[in-house]
Design goal:
The complex is a heterodimer of chains A (172) and B (124). By secondary structure, chain A is of the alpha+beta class. Chain A has five helices and six strands; from the N terminus they run αββααββαββα. Classes of the chains: A alpha+beta (172), B alpha+beta (124). The interface between A and B is large, with 50 and 45 residues.
Chain lengths: 172, 124
């Protein structure tokens, strides 16, 4: 992953693959650090699997060709900055991932966060996405409930959603 | 703390619903973008954006753009599968923004298969 935005896109897709119907993403940034929280109501992870999630190539989704590198990459990049990744989960209830990355010289660039949010929101019609993005004291909130009934596979709609997040990011 | 409203989003919804109302929404084809870890690392997000942008630019709204996980072709990511009508699916590899726009202009609009980036024909 070249950017933190790529990590968020990859990790949040784990929630979709875990059959979540609700995913909440908080991406809070200040001059010192970036705090990411991704919470879902997916199938959750049992204790045994939870102890292996940071092992490279560990995946519970071999049948759908998961690579098993997303979480190890995020952990490695967070720890390089002096930060950490913590995952807590309850089977049949859901999973919460919290990551903190400090803005040191080793911190990856944030990258195209607008594109990440747009790609997630248009990735699945069966998921309600709630996103809170803050930069310092400036924030915006998004809920995909506002898009109920819209064809998310329409190129026109996808383009509009990309532009929407681009505008929201540039307004921060 | 400044919280921005969802008004702009509501406008998107209203515009989208207005445009599809009273129109046959059956799609004549679909384009699948591989968005697994490997695809994301290789830039699949830019591929997705370029496909949507070029289709919209060419006024094509009867081709669905959807995302999938890894297609098992990690070495040629970003990968894109194109299926138009009853034709067998065609999978392209190394689809950057420029190739994504070529796929729309040549394959989707003219039916020409791009042999230089062709990876596979038929279902995976």
């Amino acid at each position: 992953m070249r950017t933190i935005a790529d990590h968020v896109l990859d990790i949040a897709q784990n929630s979709v693959n875990a059959q979540a119907t609700y995913v909440k993403i908080n991406f809070v940034e200040d001059h010192e650090k970036i705090v990411i929280k991704i919470k879902d109501n997916g199938c959750g992870i049992n204790k045994e699997e939870l102890s292996k999630i940071f092992d490279p190539f560990f995946t519970t989704h071999e049948e759908i060709r998961r690579v098993g590198l997303g979480l190890p990459f995020l952990k490695q990049n967070a720890e390089l900055t002096g930060g950490y990744v913590h995952v807590s989960s309850t089977p049949k209830i859901g999973t919460v991932l919290e990551a903190t990355l400090f803005k040191t010289i080793d911190c990856q660039p944030i990258g195209d966060l607008a594109g990440t949010f747009a790609a997630l929101v248009t990735s699945s019609t069966g998921v309600t996405w709630e996103i809170r993005r803050c930069l310092g004291k400036e924030c915006y909130d998004f809920s995909s409930k506002a898009l109920d009934g819209v064809d998310l596979s329409s190129p026109k709609v996808i383009k509009m959603i990309f532009e929407y997040f681009k505008n929201m990011e540039s307004s921060l | 703390m400044k919280i921005k409203s969802l008004e702009e989003l509501q406008k998107i919804k209203e515009k989208a619903l207005k445009e599809i109302s009273g129109r046959d929404t059956k799609k004549r084809g679909r384009i699948v973008v591989g968005m697994g870890t490997c695809g994301i690392s290789a830039g699949a997000k830019d591929t997705l954006r370029a496909l949507a942008d070029e289709l919209e630019k060419q006024s094509i709204d009867d081709v669905a753009v959807v995302q999938s996980g890894c297609m098992g072709l990690c070495e040629v990511e970003p990968t894109v599968e194109v299926q138009i009508g009853d034709e067998e699916p065609v999978i392209y590899g190394h689809v950057d923004e420029e190739q994504a726009r070529r796929i729309v202009k040549e394959h989707v609009m003219k039916g020409h298969i791009l042999s230089d980036i062709l990876v596979k024909r038929g279902k995976i």
